[in-house]
Amino acid sequence: MIYIIDDDKSVRRSFEILFAAAGFTCKSFEGTKEFLDEYVQTEGDLLILDIHIPDINGCGLLKILKEKNIHISVIIVTAYDEEESRKCAEDYGVIDFLVKPVDGDALIELISSNTKQPTS
Question: The whole model's pTM is what?
Answer without folding.
Answer: 0.92
